[in-house]
Amino acid sequence: MERFTIDNRSNASSIAVRQSLRYYTTVAIIAIVAMMCVSSMCRAQSLTVRTPAFAQPLVEQWAALYNASHAADEQVAVAGRNQEADIQITVSRHQAEQLGQTTTVFGRYAILPFVTAGSEAARTFGNKHLSKSRLEHIYFALDDEDDEFGDYADAAKGMSVYSGNSQASVANSFAEFFGQEAAAFRGKRIQGDDRFVNVAVSRDAKALSFNALSNLYDLTSRNLRDNIQLLGLDVSRRLQSALEDNDLDAVLNALEQEQDDDVAIANISLSYDATNPQTVAFISWVLTEGVKYNHQFGLLNAPEALQAVK
Amino acid sequence: MFKIRFFNLVCTIFVAAVFPIYAQVTTLRIQGQVIDNSNDEPLTGASVAAKGTRQGGVITDIDGRFVLQTQAELPVTLRVTFVGYIDQEVDVYDDSEPVTISLSENRSALEEVVVVGYGTQKRTQLTAAVASVSTDQLKLPSPSVESALSGAVSGVNVSATSGQPGAASTIRIRGGNSITGGNEPLYVIDGFIIYNDQSATQTGIQNAEAHLDPLSFLNPSDIESIEILKDVSATAIYGTRGANGVILITTKKGARGKHNISYSGQFGVSTISKRLRMLDAWQFTEAYNEIRTNEQSGDLLPEPTATYDWADAALRRAFTHDHQLSIVGGDDQSRYSISGGYKEQEGIILGTDYERYSGRINYERDVLTGLRVGVNANGAWSVQNGLNSGGSGWAPNSWIQALTFAPIVPIYNADGGYNYEPSIFSEQGTNPISDLENVENRTENWRVVATAFAEYEPISHLKVKASIGADLNHTRQKYYAPSYTTPGADYNGVARQGQLDYRTWQSELTADYSHVVAERHSLAYLLGYTVQESQRSGFAATARGFANDSYSYNALDAASDYTVTPSSVASVSTLTSWLGRVNYSYDERYNLTGTVRADASSRFAAGHRWGVFPSVGASWNVNREEWVDLGPSVDYLQLRASYGVVGNQEIGDYQYASNIVASTYYLGGKAVSASIISNKANPDLKWETTSSVNVGVNAGLWDNRLTATIDWYYKRTSDLLLNVPVEAVTGFNSVLRNVGSVTNQGIELELNGILVERRHFTWRASINLAHNRNEITSLGPGVKAFLPDFSSVATLTYINPLIVQVGQPLGTFYGYRFKGIVQSDTDLSALPVQTVKALEPGSEIYADTNGDDVVNENDRVLLGNSQPKLTGGFSTHLNWHRWDCSLTAAFSLGNKLFDATRCRYERTNIAYNSLASTAHRWTESNPSNSIARATSATSIVSDDRYVEDASFLKFRNIQVGYTLPLRQLTRGARLRAYVGLQNFFTITGYQGFDPESNRNGIDETNGLYQGVDFGTYPATKTVSFGLSITL
After folding, report:
1. Residue-level pLDDT at B283
2. Distance (Å) from the alpha carbon of B754 to chain A's nearest alpha carbon
3. Are B239 and B246 in contact (CB under 8 A)?
4. Which chain A residue shows the shortest CA-CA distance from B102?
5. Residue B6 predicted with pLDDT over 70
6. Burial per residue of B528-566, b for 16 or more beta-carbon CB atoms within 10 angstroms, e otherwise
7. Is A23 within 8 Å of B703 when comparing Cβ atoms?
8. Same domain, yes or no, for A278 and A149?
9. By CB atoms within 10 Å of each CB, which of A104, A292, B108, B811 scores lowest?
10. CATH number for A169
C-alpha cells in the first residue's frame, strides 16, 4: 500500500501563522468589547441631556464647549436612545408639566407649516397667504367652522395632515398656539421624532404638516431642506421677504424684531433636578454662554424675564 | 490542539452572543397607552395591531396600556380600534418611547352595531326600522322599564294605567292592531322571549285594584341597551308574536380587564301632581239642602262649623329609596356582572306602597377554543300594597271613596282615632281613610327569568348556539277587609287569597354563518329551531264572616260564609317554531334581508296551528355610490323598504274548543254545582295576521352632527278575533271568529343632534315625532258597530262611553251632544222630546242629532277618539367639565279622554261629595248653562262635555349632576351626585288627575276599553337626589 508522507516542516510554519492570527484576533475582540464597556461606564457618569433631534446639534455644541472648559466637572453628553437623562429639553408647556421638574426657558422656536415642494398640497395651498384662522381651519376639524374659512376646511378634508404624536413633538405647541389640543389635529399621527414627520410628508403628495425651523432648514447651508416648501403666511412684509429669500438667518432676525401673531412661536426649555449642583452649574453656563448659539442652530432667543434660574 | 479548540470556543461564544442580539434587534417592542380623547381616561380592551402584518394584535389592559411585539421594521403603522370609537392609525418611526394614542368617539350612526332578533347587525347593513333608546336616556333614573321608553322613541306610546307604585303600563308600537287580542309588544330579555301578559300577576281575587307590573322583576338600572323593532322586516323573525313590535332588552355584562364595584342610591319625595277640588262643608251643605228642598224629601243639614278635607287626609308626601350594588369584571376568558338592588316606594295614597328585592347575574366564559358558555338570570321578589276596587255608592275604588266622602263628617275623633260614628253617609260608621289604612290588598310576586347557553364555533364564521331558559313567575294575592271597613262591614270581614303560577320553558338551537366572497359580497345565514311551553295554574278563594278581624287573610277556615264560589285555572300552551334569515350585502351599498318563520301554536284549532310568516327588506346606502354626489354636508344616506307578514297569538288558551266550566245554580233556593259549556267551539280559529309595508330614510349630515330617520308605514291586521253574535237557538250569544280587520298607517321622524362638542362641553339634543292613523276596517259580515261591555263597572255600565265602529279608530267615544241647560224662561215645547233626561229648568238639553224630534238612544253620535294626532318626545343632555344636565319630555297632541270621574262627580248628590265646579251649578239665581241643578238623581249619560282634550306636554326628567373623579382610589373611581325632578311640570288642559290616565276597571290593556279615566290613581311629581360611587 502506498504511503503518503506529509512535509511537516512547511505545514508546521503555516499552522503557526494561522494560530497566531487566531490568537491575536481573539485578543482584539476581547479588547474592543472591554473598551466598549469602559466607554459606557464612563458615559454613565456624565450629565446626560435628552433632546429632540432639531435641538441635538445645539446640545452637542454645548457639550463640546462645556466639556472643554470644565474638564474637572461632570462631562455633558447627549443621552442615548434608552438612557436615563439628567436634563431634558422640553418643547411645550404640556411636556414640561408632565416631567414636573424645574424648568428654565433658554430660547424660543418658530413652527411653520409646510408641504412637499411640487405636491398636490403645494398646488392647493402654496400660493395662499394663510392667517392664523385659516391655518386653524386647515389643520383642525372644528366644531364651529367659520363660513368665511369654510373653503379652507373643505380643501383640507381632501388632504392629509400629519402631526407628531410623541410627548416631545412640537405638535403640542402648535396646537396650543390655536387654543387646541394635539389630539384635535386632522389626519395622521407620527410616532417618533419630528424629523420623521418630514419623511412621512415626503411620501404623500397630499400631505400637509408643520415643523420647527431647525427641522425645516439645513443648518449648514441656511436654506430650506430639499423638497420642502413653506406655506405662505399672512405676515409682515419683512418676514414675508425673509421667507421668500429662503434665508434662515433673515427669518430669525425678522422674528426677533417683530412679534407676528400669525406665526406660532413656543418656548424651548431645560427641565432638570435643581438639587443637583453639577446640573445647576451647567444650566447657568447655558444661560450665559450656551444661548449665544441659539441662532446658529435655528432657535430664537428667549425674553430676558424668562431666563432666571429657579 | 488546545489553541484550536480555544479559538473555536471563543468564536462560538462570540457568535452565540452576537447572533441573538442581532435577532433581538429585528423584533420591535412597541409599548403605549390608548386613551379617550374627550377626558384622557384609559380605554380598556382596545385592539392594537401592526398594519400589514399577519400577526395578531394585542388588547389594552385596565390602564389602557399595551405592549406589541412585531417582526416588522420601522416605520410600523399601528391600527387601533375600539367599539364606539373612530379607528386611529399611528405611523411609528421610533419605538424608544411609549406611544400615546387618543381615540375619539364615533358619532357615525351607521357604524353602530345594533341588536336585532337573534343577533346583531351593523346599521349600514340594516333593512329594517330599528330604534335604540339612547344611553343618555337609560342613565336617567326610571321607576320601570316601560317608563324608560316614554318619549324616547318615535311611534312608541307608553300609558301608565295607574300612578300606583309598581303598577303596569301599556305600550303601543305604531298603534294597536287587535281588538280582543293582546296589543302589547313582545319583549326579549337577554334572548328569552316574554310576552308581557298583564294577567300573569292577577290571581282572580276580587277587589284588587291596580295590577303589579309583570316586568317589575327587571331593574331599569341593570339595562345596558334597549332596541325597538318596529317594522316587519325586523319583527318577522319572531313570527306569531311580532305583530305588535318587539322590544329587545340587553342587561349589563362584564368586560375584559375591567373590574368595577359600584353603588348607586336614590332618595325621593313624591307628591300628587294635581288635586281635584271638591266642595267644602258649607258648599256641600248648601247643595244637599237645595236637593232636599227641591225634592221635598228628608231633613236638612245644619250649618257646618268646620270642613273636613278627606282627600287631604288620604294623601301624603311619599318617600322612596332605591339602592343598587353591582360588580362587573372579566379577564381574557370570563366576563361577569352581578348586581343586587332594593327599592321601597311609598304611594301618595295611604296604604299603598311597593317594595322590591332584585338580583341579576350574567356570566360567560370561554371554556375551550371556540366554545363559550354562559348564564343570564334576572329575578326579583316584589310586594305591592294596593287600593281596594269598588266602594259604596258609585266610587270605583277606595281612593275615590275617600275623595268624595261628605266633608261635613269628621275624619278623626277628639282622641285622634278614626271616627267610626254612623252617619247618613255611612250607616255602618265606616271611615274611608281607615279603609285605606286597614283594608289589606297585598300582591306578592317572585319571578326569575334565566337562560343558559353554549355557543360553539366549529369552523371560522359558523356559530352554533344552544340555549335553555325558564321564566318562573309566582304571584300570591292576599286581601282582607275588616268588619269595620266599607267592603267588610256588610259581611263581618272579607278575606280572599289567590295564587297564580306561570311557568314558561324555552329551548332554542340556532346556527349562523357569515362569510365574504370576493371582498364585496357579504352573506349571513341564520337557521333556528325553538320550542316554548307555558304552564299556568292558580286559584282564588273568598271567605266571609269572621268572629275576629285579627285573623286577617291567614285563616280562611275561620270564616262562616263560603258562598262566593272559588275559582281555579290550569292551562298549558306550546309554541314550536322554525326560523331562518338570509342577509346579503354588496359592498355595503345594497342590502337584502329575507326572513321566514313557521310557528305552530296550541292555541289554535287543528289544521290551523301552523302559520308561516315571511318578510323581505332592502336598503341602499346611497352615499357609497361613486356616481352620486350628495355634497359635503351629507355623510350618509340610506333608503329602506320592507314588506312582510306577522301574526298574533295572544288570545288565551283553548278558545277554539268548547270549554266546560263549573258553575253554581240555584234550584229551589238551594245552590247546586253544575258543569256547563261556556262557549261555542270554533274549529276554524286561527291567527290574527298583520301584513305591513315600511319605507324609511336614514341620513347623517354635517359630519354626523345631525342624524335623521324618517319612516312611513302601513299595517293591515286581518282575521281579527271578535265575538260575533249568533242565533239564540245555538244556546249562545256569540262565538269567537276571525272576522275583523284594522289598519294603522303613519309617519315617524327622529332627529338627533350634537349641538356642541368640545373637550369640556358637549350638548346633545334629540326629538322624535309620530303620527298614526288607526281605523277599524271590518267587524265581520253585517256588523257595523258594537258597544263594549262595561256591565261589571257601575257608572260606566250606564253610560257606555265607547263604541267600536267600522271606519273609526279604536277608542272612539260615543254619546250625546250637550246643548245647554234648561233655563227658567226656556220654552220647553220648542224643544224635542227628551226621553233620556226629563226636561225641566236646570236639566241638561241634548241635541236631536237625527232630527226626529225625539232625543233618545238613537241620537248618540261619535264624539272623537283617544288616538293622538301627534306624539313624541324631546331630550337634551349637557356636559360641562364635571357637571351634567339632562331634560326629557314627552308630548301628545289631539288625543281625547273620557273623564268618567268628572262625568259622575260633576253632579251633586246627597250620598257623596261633588267636584268644586258644582258650586256654580244652575239655580234660579245662577242660570248656569253648563252644570245642571242639584238633584239626587244618579242616572248619568255620556255626553261631549266629558270628552276632553287630553293633549299634554310632560317634563319627565330634569336632572343636574356632578361627577368627582377619585383617582387616588383607583384609576376609574368616581363619585356622582345629582338632584332631579320627575314629572314635575305638566302642561295640559285636561281637567282630570292625569292626561295619560287609563283606568276603566275592566281591562286596561284591552283595545276595546281605551280612553276612559274613571278613578285613576293620581300621577305624582317627585324630587329626588342620588349618589353613585364607582370603584
Report:
1. 96
2. 10
3. no
4. A183
5. no
6. bebebebebebbbbbbbbbeebebbbeebeebeeeebeb
7. no
8. yes
9. A292
10. 3.40.190.290
Co-location of A141 and A238 in the same domain: yes
CATH of B109-251, one of 2.170.130.10, 3.10.20.80, 1.10.150.120, 3.20.20.70: 2.170.130.10
Tell me: pLDDT of A44 over 50: no
Mean pLDDT of B853-872: 93
**Chain B contacts in chain A segment 126-155 (CB below 8 A):** 141, 143, 154
Do A112 and A5 share a domain, yes or no? no
Is there a single domain that holds both residue A113 and residue A232? Answer: yes
Residues A80 and A154 in one domain: yes
Contact A26 B90 (CB under 8 A): no
Residue B90 touches partner A, C-beta closer than 8 Å: yes
User: What residue spans define the domains of chain B?
Assistant: 2-103, 109-251, 263-282+306-369+379-387+444-669+688-816+864-1030, 819-859
**Interface contact B94-A193, CB threshold 8 A:** yes
pLDDT 10s digits, A190-248: 988 899 999 999 988 889 999 999 999 999 999 999 889 999 888 888 888 888 888 99
SS3 B673: strand
**C-alpha angle with apex A268: A266 to A274, nearest 5 degrees?**
140
How far does B226 lie from chain A, in Å, by closest CA? 30
Q: How many domains does chain A have?
A: 2
Shared-domain flag, residues A86 and A27: no
- CA-based nearest residue to B657, from B605, B620, B695, B708: B605
Considering only the beta carbons, identify the residue of B4, B91, B102 that sits closest to A188.
B91
Residues A144 and A2 in one domain: no
Q: How far A190 CA sits from the closest chain B CA (Å)? A: 5
Q: What's the gap in Å between the CA of A295 and the closest CA on chain B?
A: 28
- Asked if A143 and B757 come within 8 Å (Cβ–Cβ), the reply is yes
Q: Which residues of A touch B757 (CB under 8 A)?
A: 143
Q: Which residues of B touch A196 (CB under 8 A)?
A: 75, 91, 93-94
pLDDT of A17: 57
Q: What is the mean pLDDT of residues B576-594?
A: 92
Please tell me the CATH code under which domain B2-103 is placed.
2.60.40.1120
Q: Range of A24's domain?
A: 1-44
Position B851 scores a pLDDT of 93
Q: Which CATH superfamily is domain B263-282+306-369+379-387+444-669+688-816+864-1030 in?
A: TonB-dependent receptor, beta-barrel domain (2.40.170.20)
Residue B418 · residue B412 · CB < 8 Å: yes
Question: Can you name the residues that pair with B568 across neighbouring β-strands?
Answer: B539
Q: Shortest Cα distance from B96 to chain A (angstroms)?
A: 7
| Cell numbers given for B1005 | 290593556
Q: What angle do CA A287, A289, A291 make, to 5 degrees?
A: 60
Question: What ipTM did this prediction achieve?
Answer: 0.76
Do the Cβ atoms of B93 and A190 come within 8 Å? yes
What residues form DSSP beta bridges with B1027?
B265, B977
Chain B residue whose CA is closest to A186: B88
pLDDT at A41 over 80: no
In angstroms, the CA B568 to CA B580 distance is 40
> What are B715's three cell numbers?
299595517
Using a CB-CB distance cutoff of 8 angstroms, which residues of chain B are in contact with residue A193? Answer: 93-94
B632: chain A residues, CB-CB within 8 Å: 154, 157
Helices A150-157 and A132-139: angle between axes, nearest 10 degrees: 30
DSSP for B282-298, written as a single string = HHHHHHHHHHHHHHT-S
Section A269-298 average pLDDT: 91
With CA atoms as reference, the chain B residue closest to A143 would be B757
CA–chain centroid gap for B240, Å, is 20
Given an 8 Å threshold on Cβ–Cβ distance, is B100 in contact with A167? yes
Q: Which residue has the higher pLDDT, B438 or B792?
A: B438
| A132-157 confidence digits (pLDDT tens) | 888 888 898 765 545 556 667 667 77
Nearest residue in A to B39, CA atom:
A183
